[in-house]
Amino acid sequence: MENRIKDLRMARGWSQGELASRLGVTRQTINAVETNRYDPSLPLALRAAKLLGVPVDTLFLDDWQPQE
Amino acid sequence: MNIASEPGNATGGGRLPFWQRAALGGLFGAAFGYGGSELAQRWLPAGTTMQDLSPAQGAAFLLGFISLTVGLICLAMSHSRRLYESENWTAEAGPDEHRQIAPQLRLSALALIAMGAEFIALGLPVEPARAPLVIGTVIIALLVQLWVNWRVWQNSDELYRAIVLEGSTVSLALVLSLLTIWAPLALYGLVTFDPLTAILLVSVMCIIPTIWLTVRRGMIA
């Protein structure tokens, strides 16, 4: 899933390792999420959104819309 | 496109051009293969050569030797802080990366060494009198691998666990398919069913999906 984690992380001047440390995961997990190779669990997505100061649906981009 | 990553171009940071790296890889592989077969020859019982081994025994021996070597390399890497301080690792890595990864790498090295010992023991032709030694080695190696898997699972985050779960699902489907096809063929005598070939194929079907998923999910980066 597309996301803005890399942009928001870099805006704060954090490396992947620093963000990983703050979120309690490995740098490999952050790298996998940033490169859209892995969709994080809901708890990790919520923690990332809180840490980066944006709503989850701003952090993760999904163009799905419910049918009328 | 990153020009530095194109084959044939020299990369930054003192990296060798693609063809030189390929040539070095080939040389290393040839030296590794020659050294491995020489070493294997020394481990075989007196009067036995590699040509005397069955294809399954040869494959088990080879897989064991590769596992043992990769395990020793992982063990060396886990003690090398310099590796993590090299240019390729520090771009996104935090200062604690080596401290975080080294224990996991050591555990993986232990599992690989145990797997290597297990397959070498299974591949070696031994006299019946030494069977307890082989069986003991295999059981201890299996227990070590189970313990390591449990420890790694306990210490891992969600990416590793997702890869293990996904890999296990793919492996189970592959193993079931293989055995479902193999069973009737063996029942009607069209192929043989020997335990060593079975354990080798099952192991390969567990290893390959995990490696594929590890790369696909971006864990190696």
Describe it.
- The complex is a heterodimer of chains A (68) and B (221).
- Chain A has helices at residues 5-11, 16-23, 27-34, 42-52, 56-59.
- Chain A has 68 residues and is mainly α.
- The two termini of chain A are 24 Å apart.
- The relative contact order of chain A is 0.23.
- Chain B is mostly helical.
- Chain B contains 8 helices and no strands.
- Chain B has helices at residues 18-43, 55-78, 81-84, 87-90, 97-123, 131-155, 158-187, 195-216.
- The radius of gyration of chain B is 20 Å and the shape is globular.
- The model of chain B is unreliable at 1-13 (pLDDT under 50).
Question: Which labels suit this protein?
Answer:
heterodimer; A: 68 residues; mainly alpha; 5 helices; globular; B: 221 residues; 73% helix
At a glance:
By secondary structure, chain A is mainly α. Chain A has helices at 5-11, 16-23, 27-34, 42-52, 56-59. Chain A starts with a helix and ends in a 9-residue tail after the last helix.
Topology summary:
The complex is a heterodimer of chains A (68) and B (221).
Chain A: H1 5-11, H2 16-23, H3 27-34, H4 42-52, H5 56-59
Chain B: H1 18-43, H2 55-78, H3 81-84, H4 87-90, H5 97-123, H6 131-155, H7 158-187, H8 195-216
